[in-house]
Amino acid sequence: MAYFGFKDLSSLSNIDLSIYRYVTQNSDKVVYMRVRDIAQNAHVSSSSVMRFIHKIVFNSFPEFKAYIKNDNLTMKPEQPKFTYINESNIPKDIASKLMISANAVFESDNIAMLGMGDFAFLAEYAARRMASLGFNTTPVTDPFYPLLAKLRNTTNNIIFCFSVTGETAELIELINEFVNDEDVKIVCITSNGNSTIAKMSRYVLNYFEKTHHLSNNYDMSSQIPVMYIIERLDHILENMLEQ
């Protein structure tokens, strides 16, 4: 895209193009330079700089610098604000909750990560990370998965349920068989600490995040707080394994 509103770049000589490239790549510095400073840095003469300024239709060097200064102010890109997650997304007691959950995982023989819909990939992600640490972990993203049959005659089991609302009907039905089973601990990761699944769980790792849906009802809510919980839990487990 042409700078200074000048579009006929083909009319510029090689010397002009050298000045053009230097000015466009260093516009924040050029506004404080003299003609001879630009000439020295562009490796041309001062007269070449002035000819270039007149060729791109500026009457004087001050007018040229004023244009650049104003253009920098109006065209300066907005600095990105990285505010995807902060203290407002995570409860103050999350550290103790994570430690309790990590101890439960550490003592378990079998771990199931349950997630449906948008949470399916998070269940798989969490399962893969825990498996990398050496834990027997299975992701369950199928609401008809025979989890009861898989865990029958086993002990020291832990089930993680991922649900934004904590009201996912398929998950409720799937874990209902284990609510009163002493050999199974249920951990819920949800944004609703008062949900049905949270009440069915022994431990609740909750977070705070506004839900965001498109007009077609697709859920675009941020899952970064969930990723934070998963990775913090893995970090605690890794430290436990190293001790």
TrEMBL record:
Superkingdom of the source species: Bacteria
Keywords (A to Z) from UniProt: DNA-binding, Transcription, Transcription regulation
Keyword Zinc-finger: no
GO biological process annotation, one example: carbohydrate derivative metabolic process
Ranges where the SIS domain occurs: 101-243
GO molecular function: carbohydrate derivative binding; DNA binding; DNA-binding transcription factor activity
Domain called HTH rpiR-type: residue spans: 1-75
Keyword Cytoplasm belongs to the record: no
PROSITE patterns for this protein: HTH_RPIR, SIS
PANTHER family, per database record: GLUCOKINASE, HTH-TYPE TRANSCRIPTIONAL REGULATOR HEXR-RELATED
Name of the protein in its database record: RpiR family transcriptional regulator
Provenance organism: Lactobacillus gallinarum
